[in-house]
Design a protein that fits this description.
With 324 residues, this protein is α/β, with parallel strands linked by helices. It contains 11 helices and 12 strands. Helix 3 crosses helix 4, helix 3 packs parallel to helix 5 and helix 4 packs across helix 5. The structure holds iron/sulfur cluster (SF4). Iron/sulfur cluster binds next to helix 11. Keywords: ATP-binding, Nucleotide-binding, Transport.
């Protein structure tokens, strides 16, 4: 991506928090003070273990949830302060591809109705919508005969293609891809990823790609944001992050990527992470990774590390790095 394109972010997430009140005394801090930008035409990946808040972040960014605090700006405007007309425009510009192609498609609707629903909501006639659905199905490798069928008649990969066609139907600029391949067979995953990349090039799309598989993330992203238990722990351009991971959690995640070359696999030392991801309910105000980190010191259990920029665009929240 050209630097000139990087002046104004398309999406700005600023100090975003999304808490869920479980009871009077218990608060689940699913997203806690997240700040990152996404520039036009790039893919930013949000990675971390299940339950780290990645999907809640995506859902808040598309207004499926209201934030507890913080802001999300789209093209410079706060999406939570839109008037009716701006909200309608936002619904066209921003779309989501959901994780589970089995549950995200209404089983009682035909493919024609699923893909064409958004078009009709935005005022397109049935005739034009049908023609566009046919075109969209061709774009994702399906055909006209599929229009009258129901979701259960398709494989997982084909259902995800229908989900992608639905997202593309209103010609969006920005798509949040929420673990779009994790429910698919490995053999199908590459096809869907390649299709997303091709569509991005053809249509100049911008993606937020939510994933836990770091080998896929390397292939598709320009930049990566690593989350742990609701907080952001590291962000950098993809090549920089994979070459010089600084946060102990990122280092452990990267060390767990399977290596195809047996010689390299032998040389690579897997960094173990102790225990399970802790509960995000009433987390302590200290490093959230402290209980599982092999470098933790007393300070890590007392004080929350702050984000520090250690190289252009490479930021890390870790006391080890702060002290260097
Ligand atoms: Fe580990 Fe401490 Fe860094 Fe947290 S702040 S990642 S516990 S070294």
């Amino acid at each position: 991506m050209e630097n000139t394109e990087k002046k104004q972010p398309l999406v700005q997430v600023k100090n975003l928090c999304k808490y869920f009140e479980i009871s009077r005394k218990e608060t689940l801090k699913a997203v806690d003070d997240l700040t990152f930008d996404i520039y036009k035409g790039e893919t930013v990946s949000l990675v971390g273990e299940s339950g780290c808040g990645k999907s809640t972040t995506g859902r808040t960014m598309i207004k499926l949830y209201n934030p507890t605090s913080g802001n999300v700006y789209y093209d410079g405007k706060d999406i939570f302060k839109y008037n009716h007309a701006e909200q309608k425009e936002f619904c066209k510009k921003v779309q989501m591809i959901f994780q589970n192609p089995y549950s995200s498609l209404n089983p009682r609707m035909t493919v024609k109705d699923i893909v064409g629903e958004g078009l009709k909501q935005h005022g397109m006639s049935t005739k034009d919508a049908d023609a566009k659905v046919e075109q969209l199905l061709a774009t994702v490798g399906l055909n006209k005969d599929h229009m009258s069928r129901f979701p259960h008649e398709f494989s997982g990969g084909q259902r995800q293609r229908i989900g992608i066609a639905r997202a593309l139907s209103v010609d969006p600029e920005f798509i949040i891809c929420d673990e779009p391949i994790s429910a698919l067979d490995v053999s199908i995953q590459a096809q869907v990823i390649n299709m997303l990349k091709e569509l991005q090039e053809e249509r100049g799309l911008t993606y937020l790609f939510i994933a836990h598989d770091l080998s896929v993330v390397k292939y598709i992203s320009d930049r990566v944001v690593v989350m742990y238990l609701g907080t952001m722990v590291e962000t950098a351009e993809t090549d920089e992050l994979y070459a010089h991971p600084m946060h102990p959690y990122t280092q452990a995640l990267l060390s767990a990527i399977p290596e195809a070359d047996p010689n390299k696999a032998k040389a690579n030392q897997r960094i173990p992470i102790k225990g399970e991801i802790p509960s995000p309910i009433n987390p302590k105000n200290c490093c959230r990774f402290a209980e599982r980190c092999q470098h933790a010191t007393e300070r890590c259990f007392k004080e929350m590390p702050q984000m520090k920029e250690i190289a252009p665009g490479h930021k890390v929240a870790c006391h080890l790095v702060e002290d260097k």
